[in-house]
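Run log, item B.
One chain of 387 residues. Sequence copied directly from the ordering sheet:
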Amino acid sequence: MSRSSQHSRLRITSSGIGVLVTSFGALAVWAFAGYAEFALVGVVGLLLVGLALLWPRVVSETRFSRVVPPRLVGRGDVMTLTLAAEVDRVSQPTRLIDQLTGVAVPIMLPSLKPGRPVLVRYRVMALRRGVHQLGPLLEERTDPLSLVTRTVEHDVVDDVLVHPRIHRLGLNDTGARLQQSRARVPRLSDDPLADFRSLREYVVGDDERLVHWPTVARTGVLMVRDHFELRRTTRTVILETFDRSVTEAGFEDAVEIAASIVCESIERNIAVSVRSRDRAFPGRSAPLLHRTEALEFFSRVSRTVHDDTIPAAALRIGRDTSDQIFLIAGASSPLIAQLATAPSISRHLVVIRLVDRSAKVRRLAVRSLDVESVEQFAQLWTQALVA
C-alpha cells in the first residue's frame, strides 16, 4: 500500500472563533479600563488558539486505499465500499469523509496500530447519472479542545459510472408469444447448412452442393435443395440529446426509456443498436452484445448544445434499416419530422415523445407514444408493443 499525495488546510471551529472573540474583547476592556485580569484572559485565549493551530499534524501518517470499488452502478443504488487503512505508529480515532456527486459520507476510523491494517465498510448512494469521481478522501484532525480542525486531503480517487435506472418492460403471455413469433423471420438462403424447405429444378448458377443426388438418380432430373434461414428481429434505438428539445429532467427520463428498451432487447435476444446525437458518444450501427456495454454507453451520453449535436444525416439510419426504429425525444425535437418524412425509415419508426400535458402537441403521421414520464412509459409499453 503506497502513500498517496496529500494536501492539508486549517479551519478554526465555532468554538475557536468564540475563544478568539472573547480574547479580543477582554483585551479591549483591559486597554480602555485598565483591568489586568481581562488582559490575562485575553492572552490565555490567544495562546490556546495559537497552540491549537500547531497541534494537528500537517501530514497524515495513515495510508488509505479502497478495496475493489465498483465501476458501474445504477442511479439510486447504494454502494457498499471498503476502505483499508494502515499506519507505522499508533494513531488515535479519526473522522474521515468520503464523497460522491456532492454527497459527503462521514466515516469513523478507530485507533490504529502498526502492522495491523483495518478495514472500514460504509455505504454511499449514487444520486446522479454520469461519470463521477469517488473521493478524494478527507481526514479531519483536531486539537483536544476542538478549537482548530486540520483537514488532510488524500488523493484516493476512483471513477464510477452511474448508469440510468433500468425499468422492467414485462409482457403478458399473449404479448410474449406474439413477440416470439416476430422474433425470427424466414428468408431464402443459399447456405447449404440452413434449414431445408423443398426441392426444385436446378437453375444455372446454383451451388453444386445443393444438388440432391438421390432424387436425381430416381427421376433423372437435376434437382436442388431450397433452404431458408432464420433471421433475428433487429432494432435501432435513437436518443435525441439536443438540449432545446427537452428539459434536463425530461432528458433523464428519455435516457432511462432508451436504456430500458435496449436492455429489454438484449435480454430477449433481439439484435439492437443504439445511436445518439451526442458528438462525443454517437453510438454505432453494430448491435450491442452485452448489457454492460449498453449501461456504459448510457452512463456517458449527455445533453448537448447546438455545436455538440450531430446532424440527422450523420446518424445514417437509412443505410441498414432495422425492423423497428425507436426514437426517444422531446416533443419539440426537429429530429422527429426529419425521420418521419423519410420513406425508408417512417414505416419502421416508433416515436416516443416526452410531453408536457399543459402544452398542445400535434399529431404525428407515424406510430407514436406520448408519455410524461418514464414510469408512465413502462406502464404503457406492453399495450403499445402488442398493438
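Observations after the first pass:
- Residues 172-195 have pLDDT under 50 and may be disordered.
- Residues 319 and 344 are 9 Å apart (CA to CA).
Flagged for discussion on Thursday.
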